[in-house]
Structures are given as structure tokens and as C-alpha cells.
Design a protein that fits this description.
By secondary structure, the chain is mainly β. The protein is built from 2 helices and 28 strands. It has a 4-stranded antiparallel beta sheet with strand order 1-2-3-4. The chain has a 4-stranded antiparallel beta sheet with strand order 5-6-7-8, with no helix packed on it. Strands 9-10-11-12 form a 4-stranded antiparallel beta sheet, with no helix packed on it. Strand 19 (238-242) and strand 20 (245-250) form a beta hairpin. The longest helix is centred in the C-terminal third of the chain and has 29 residues, at 337-365.
Length: 370
């Protein structure tokens, strides 16, 4: 255990982040190849890290192999204790339970390409290749709802990707489709899990037919406490819907911002990318820079974002900060003048893209401004 973030993160870059509870946060971190200090042995090129503000400590765990580019989610045990769960693309599993800390490695799950990890309802879920969806019932105990083992690329059904849900019987996930592009039995789309069966949810046809650049592909999914489901796309799209279907709030655009990592916090939809934090303007149906430019404590580290009802966490390669709805508090990382300049330039770039979008729309409709 340590008192400072430097002891836990120096020489590392954050690759994932999660809120465990109001005062506990967890991070996956990989060795930063640009760091000029002494390098650890290759088998220890990653670290799973936590910050416990309740106890005023930082800590972590390194393993002999595994957990490169670890995924992390925050939740709780069956007895209500705060818990962070980590996994990776190879299906390695470990949990940190608080206040005790790391619990050691569990048996890996048999999922090739464990793509995403979430805490939904009362359980942790993993989805991945082979249309896999698994629920963690207890340490080393998983219920496999669906998993088709890999045989060959030609017969591989493809992966479930980003997902989120309201309960154990109400989960939405993106299905990337089979690797065989000529397969007709399954197509890419959003699927709903009702606790028993998968059902593909209707999507607007304009997302896939006669699209100007590329068919729709989901980047992230966010379910809100009031029952809304938001889906961000890789070409700037934003969808809103639920079990019966979705509507397009923001269409595909050529000069789009990268796919947004979504988070709903205190009735605001946030989107984070590598270079900035944004909020969605539902009147204009567009992303705008988050209104923190004048705040000296505003975050400069992106794009990993997570929240519960009381606190939002934002993290990037070299730092992290939390937001309670009024005040930003830095958890880790030194803020340099270069960091601040980078964020300001990103905000100016977004304003330029919005102006360019308006010009293109005017030219398309033949109604340019005077």
C-alpha cells in the first residue's frame, strides 16, 4: 500500500478505469515504453491498480503473465462489499475486494477474446468472441449463456462487443456479425438479452443502406437509470432507443469525432475521446465541448469514463480525475501547460468541424447563409 499515485502508476499508462464506489476507483495499466526510468521484467509489464480515498491509500498487483490491456468494472460482492473485477482478451480473471484488496487469480473463463466487462443488476458480465455472454455468480463460478468455440475463421460467428443493461434480464449488446461477410443467417446489429433468449432489435435502414461512408458499427452502449439506451457509432452517429427499436439522433458524418465512450451522469450524456470530453446537446442533436474550460481543475486526461449516481471518473494514459457534479478533483497525474493547450486546441477544432458541417449541409440543400 502507498499514499501517493506515483508509487502505483509511475512508468505506466492507464488503459482502463472504473468506479467501484463513491471513494474507490480501479485502473488497468500497461508499461509505458516512453518512460526513461528502469523497466520491469517483461512478465510484469502491466499492473492492476486501485485508489481507495476512504482509506487514503493506493495499491495494486502485478502478475506473472496476463492482464495486458486489462478490462475493469466496479461492482460488489453478494454480501455488498465493494469489488473491482479485471479480465483480459485471454479470459484471465482476478478480483479486488475492499477493504481487503487483491484476492489472487481465478481460473480463466473459456472465452476467446473477452471484449467487454460490465456490472449489471447484481452480477459481473463478460461478452466476447463466439457470441459469448457469461455471468459471474461467485468466484470461479460462471454461467455461460452463449459461447460457440472457435473452429475456423470461415465458420466463426463473430463477437459481441460493447454492451450495457438495466438488469440480469434486460441487456443490450452490439453483434459485429460473422467473419464470413456472405453469411445470411446472422447480420450485424443490436441484440437484446431477456435472461432467456437473444433477439435482434430493429435499427433504421439508413444506418446500413446507401450510407455515404461505411455501414453503422457501434462503439459504445450506455443504459441510463430512466430507461434510455444510447449507442454511439464509429462515424459520429448517436442512436436512442430500447427493445422496440432505435432512432438516429446524430447521423454519420465524414469529418466525425472518433467513437464516443458514453456515460450518463446527473441527467447529462457525456462522451469521451482521446482528446477531450463532450456533452450531447439534445436541442441541436450534436456533441459540444464539456463546459469546464474556465475551471483550473478541469480534466486533461481522457478517454476512459465511468460513473455511479454520485461520482464520475475520467482517466487517460497519464492521469485521472473525479467529478461530483460541481467540482473536479484530480486523483493522479500532473497537469502541464501542454495538457491545457491540447484541450483548448481540441475545443477549437470541434468548433471548426461544426462550422464545416453547417456549410456542407447548406450546400447540400441549396440554402447557403447570406
Amino acid at each position: 500500500m502507498s499514499k501517493t499515485w506515483q508509487d502505483s502508476l509511475t512508468g505506466l499508462s492507464i488503459v482502463s478505469a472504473a468506479v467501484v464506489d463513491d471513494g474507490i476507483f480501479a485502473f488497468g495499466a500497461n508499461w509505458d515504453e516512453t518512460y526513461s526510468g528502469p523497466k520491469p521484467p517483461a512478465k510484469y509489464h502491466n499492473r492492476l491498480v486501485f485508489c481507495d480515498l476512504n482509506a487514503g491509500t493506493w495499491g495494486g498487483k502485478q502478475y506473472d503473465g496476463g492482464f495486458d490491456f486489462a478490462r475493469v468494472a466496479g461492482g460488489q460482492t453478494a454480501h455488498g462489499a465493494p469489488q473491482a473485477l479485471f479480465t483480459d482478451a485471454m479470459g484471465n480473471i482476478t478480483a479486488f475486494t475492499f477493504p481487503d484488496g487483491p484476492r489472487g487469480k481465478e481460473h480463466p473463463v473459456e472465452v476467446r477474446g473477452a471484449n467487454r466487462l460490465r456490472f449489471i443488476g447484481d452480477h459481473f458480465y463478460i461478452c466476447g468472441d463466439g457470441r459469448s455472454l457469461l455471468r459471474r455468480d461467485a468466484p470461479d463460478a460462471w454461467t455461460v449463456f452463449n459461447h460457440v468455440p472457435f473452429v475456423s475463421r470461415e465458420t466463426d460467428l463473430g463477437a459481441f462487443g460493447p454492451f450495457d443493461g438495466f438488469s440480469d434480464a434486460d441487456i443490450f449488446m452490439w453483434y459485429a456479425g460473422p467473419y464470413d461477410s456472405d453469411a445470411t443467417d446472422r447480420k450485424p446489429g443490436i441484440e437484446h438479452w431477456n435472461g432467456t433468449d437473444f433477439r435482434q432489435v430493429p435499427l433504421p435502414t439508413e444506418l446500413f443502406e446507401d450510407v455515404p461512408w461505411a455501414p453503422f458499427r457501434a462503439h459504445d452502449i450506455c443504459c441510463t437509470p430512466d430507461g434510455q439506451v444510447f449507442v454511439s457509432g464509429t462515424k459520429g452517429e448517436l442512436l436512442l432507443g430500447g427493445r422496440e427499436g432505435f432512432v438516429v439522433l446524430a447521423p454519420q458524418v465524414q469529418n466525425a469525432l472518433p467513437g464516443m465512450n458514453l456515460c450518463w451522469f446527473k441527467d447529462v450524456l457525456y462522451g469521451a475521446i482521446d482528446a477531450g470530453l463532450f456533452t450531447f446537446d439534445f436541442k441541436e442533436n450534436s456533441w459540444v465541448p464539456a463546459p469546464f474550460a474556465g475551471d483550473p481543475n478541469a480534466p486533461v486526461h481522457f478517454p476512459h469514463i465511468d460513473a455511479n449516481e454520485n461520482v464520475m471518473l475520467l482517466a487517460g494514459a497519464y492521469g485521472a480525475a473525479i467529478f461530483d457534479g460541481d467540482v473536479w478533483t484530480s486523483l493522479a497525474g500532473d497537469v502541464s501547460a501542454l495538457d491545457v493547450t491540447r484541450v483548448r486546441l481540441m475545443e477549437q477544432q470541434v468548433e471548426g468541424l461544426e462550422e464545416l458541417r453547417d456549410i456542407v449541409q447548406d450546400l447540400a440543400t441549396g440554402t447557403p447563409d447570406d
